[in-house]
Amino acid sequence: MRFKSGFARAVALGAAAVVVLLALDGIAHVLMAQNPFGGPPPAAEPQIGGIVGWILAKQSEFYREISTTIRAAKSDGSAVWTLLAISFAYGIFHAAGPGHGKAVISSYLVANQETARRGIVLSFASALMQALVAVVIVAIFAWLLNATASTMCNAEKVIEIASYALIAAFGARLVWTKGGGFIRALQVERPAPVLAAVAHHDHGHDHEHHHDHHHDEDHVHDEHCGHSHGPVPSELAGPGGWRRGLGAIFAVGLRPCSGAILVLVFALAQGLFWAGIAATFVMGLGTAITVATIAVIAVSAKDVARRLSSASEGSGTLIMRGIEFGAAGLVLLFGAGLLFGYIAAERVTCF
Amino acid sequence: MKIAPRRLLGLLLAGFLVAGGGVAKAHPHVWITAISELLYAPDGSITGVRHAWTFDDMFSTYALQGIETKQKGVYSREELSSLAQTNVESLHEFAFFTFAKADGKKEKFLEPVDYYLEYKDTALTLHFTLPLKAPVKPKQLVLEVFDPEFFIDFKLADKDPIKLVGAPAACQMKFERPNDGAAGAQKIGEQNFLSGGANANYGAMFANKITVDCP
To answer: Does A94 contact B at CB distance below 8 Å?
Structure first.
């Protein structure tokens, strides 16, 4: 337990660092953009590294090194270690780009009363599933069937659509349940005034035993646990909640990342499929760290919101149910947006 | 309650970061080294563009996956013909990453002709000709080659990247490479991140711009 909470704290710390860096970066840019002489802003922005730009440049660099390193590993086995190190770094940077379920996982965590620890577990599980799917696709299509890239790509497209549809369906279900909670909160004339906000508590096993039955609708808060639970608490932390967590992992993790597929096929062609597989999983590990960081930020933000809203008398529950409902809506929007192409995900390489 | 505004700020910032995560941009997965030719008719009008695009090592290998050959590692033009077909058909969706403006007016291209793939030194090169829907004879033609989503990084070849084939002698050609990749990425990334801008023209920063002036 001690180790786990230490780990959670470390991730939270990392998350805080990212926020601070981004804030500083933004401030630096605002300052740089102002002309001290009061004239129009300078035409060319000085090349002070924007962090986002730096991330983009870095991942590009790492990605190009992956193919070089795989080629090198053909003759020099020790290059595999370099490959793993680069893949790990690439994963960390790459997850900052589109896809990888950051938005979906974060919204899901906010919509449900999830702990940071569970956010981390969900992030790792979905990232590892992504890696696994990429390996399975390449193993079946390229290695076993020796199918062409375009066949493989069509399979990827089908999987992609399935993943987006699942996210949308998952979001719709969240909206349905959270909408109920929101409406109930609207109907409660005087909601429970005090919502004791305990950010970190054990959402573990002993908890579940109390909750595998439904509470009555008027049971807005859950006193014997000492923290605020929604009107539908048993669905969240109870066994059903874990099952739904699996749903999130599956929906998000189903779509592999195009980069991993390219790396795997390339490694296979060089006769180093195993190295490609190892690189893919290490990449997934890196991705998971970034996604987990963002997930923890989302959960912490909600905890702050909960503390703030509990200070405002009466409307606290309503605000929290509103945030949850909004987050549930976001999951649905992400799913629908991805499905109908309004949100650009990473392109599937089909030429 | 005194610290509430600061906390609220933190909350907004965190929310921003989460939302921004979805906005942050992809990086290129495919690199293309291009050589482009502008084709002129005897009367001095432009009829189309001929491209030769060489893919990077990794993508070339990926594209060749599962293609049967008589001799291992050697791919003839015939053996690659169906792949070339797939290539040009898929490129349609992306407007062939080729954008032409004649005196400021956007020009359309027809489907590619004379396309084939060539395999040399572990790299695939796609050759194809894009005929203009209607030949044009503008004072100024601007041709840009880039991927708006920057999934593909286009770089025109170091040596003789552009040729004017049969152009009137008086025509002057100017060629601008994209700004230094990293610096460009930083600027645009930052802008998009802060404004939450759409994906739409992200890659324009990385465009290769060819301008031909004919008096």
So the answer is: yes
